[in-house]
Design goal:
about 300 residues; alpha+beta; Nitrilase/N-carbamoyl-D-aminoacid amidohydrolase; 6 helices; about 25% helix; globular
Length: about 300
Amino acid sequence: MPLNATAPHAHRDAAFRIGLVQMSCSTDPNANLRKAIERIHEAANRGAEIICLPELFRSEYFCREENAELFELAETIPGPATEALGGVAKELQVSIIASLFEKRAPGLYHNTAAVLDADGSLVGLYRKMHIPDDPLYFEKFYFTPGDLGFQSFETRYSRIGVLVCWDQWYPEGARITSLQGATVLFYPTAIAWHPSEKAQYGEVQLDAWRTIQRAHAIANGVFVAAANRTGYEGSQESGLEFWGNSFVADPFGRVLAQAGPDEEKVLVVECDPKQMDEVRRNWPFLRDRRIDAYAPIAQRWLG
């Protein structure tokens, strides 16, 4: 059982443990949900108190193609997944971040992360703000951009921030979420190599992905946790090789734990908010921000 299972609310300065689930996903939503629940149990048994699943874990990454029939994969929130995971959260006394294909209304769909607290309740939703449209990442066909803004969520164990995959590349989202008091920025992720590009660009792509997120940790003095999927999905001609490498970085940007590229793995890492205070005292970026001079950032282009 998690260390703080008996406490209704942990002290804000107390250390807590997070769990990241790196898993492969099949075409069977129910099988994927069962696997995710098994991994949540594993993380909780190892002491994790806030557990994050990969992006859109209930299916293969369906955005590889534009196919209207795939809207059938969407579900309401609350709905079947949040009901099942809410029961698990309550049973294990853990908070869960679950990335889902949300059917908000007929013809209106989002890429949404649901945050469930340790009593099984739905704390809130984060709807993915930045929606990519690239080869084999045809997300604009499926998802309406998020309209809830950048948020932080108060869970039993800590106040956390949640963003999703493509949001990883935007310092604005990380900053705004951090300014709301988040101790950890969680990034449920589905990022991969195009196999034809891997030999030439694979290493530098992975390094850039890891570097930008470590930079968010450093610039904001927070922990950053990215939970990616792994495995090959699709045909040989139009498939994606998901690169795994789920990791946790501390407020100094150091990688505390990392999974490999092609393994299913559960990471459990302790996060101590006192480290945030120490880093921010020595690197007082929040103190020295020129908030009077940043209005131009809201413009599309300044050239």
